[in-house]
Design goal:
The chain has helices at residues 19-30, 48-57, 62-67, 77-94, 105-109, 116-136, 153-165; strands spanning 11-15, 36-41, 69-73, 97-103, 141-145, 168-171. It is an alpha/beta fold and 178 residues long.
Length: 178
């Protein structure tokens, strides 16, 4: 995958078992000498070791690569909403951001303790903010979405809303047995 394969000004949903790995590859592909990539991680799946291995295979300086990835570990849907609504745009104005990766949207928004009406409102605001950021700043925003075949109820509804908010949805093939 090259930088030109990731369309700017789009919010793309990446669905499948390897969606987290895809986000790591995309983050690495988007990095250049003066740019940074933002990784919003709500599922604790960001793996610096994986990035390091991928960078080594490409002959890149691993410390330089890791230093240009801005990671936000998010523990609540409120933190993700705040980050998407106000903090991302400030970061884009401050640094040369080449792309935004969002991992863990579904687990954060499917928290059963949060009333459904509040989830709906925050999800809509978050998705609108991410989509606006992609368009207004000409950035690719990639959302990692789990496979939808095993989802039901509230999770299925959240997945569908996220997928519909995306410019397009990329379904990754099922990995072959190893």
């Amino acid at each position: 995958m090259t930088r030109t394969e990731l369309f700017t000004s789009e919010m793309v949903g990446i669905s499948g078992a390897d969606s987290s790995r895809f986000l790591h590859q995309a983050a690495l592909s988007l990095l250049d000498r003066d740019g940074v990539v933002v990784f919003l991680c709500g599922d604790n799946l960001f793996d610096p070791d994986l990035i390091t291995k991928m960078a080594r295979k490409r002959g890149a300086d691993t410390l330089s690569v890791l230093s240009r990835i801005r990671i936000a570990r998010l523990f609540t849907l409120h933190q993700l909403a705040t980050c998407a609504e106000s903090r991302l745009e400030k970061l884009v104005l401050k640094e040369t951001v080449r792309g935004v990766m969002v991992s863990g949207l579904l687990p954060l928004f499917s928290e059963k303790r949060i009333p459904e009406r509040e989830v709906d409102t925050l999800l809509e605001r978050t998705l609108c903010s991410l989509r606006h950021l992609a368009h207004s700043c000409s950035l690719p925003v990639l959302l990692s979405l789990p496979e939808d075949s095993h989802l039901s109820g509230r999770c299925q509804k959240i997945w569908e809303r996220a997928a519909m908010a995306c410019t397009r949805l990329v379904r990754l093939p099922v990995p072959a047995e190893r």
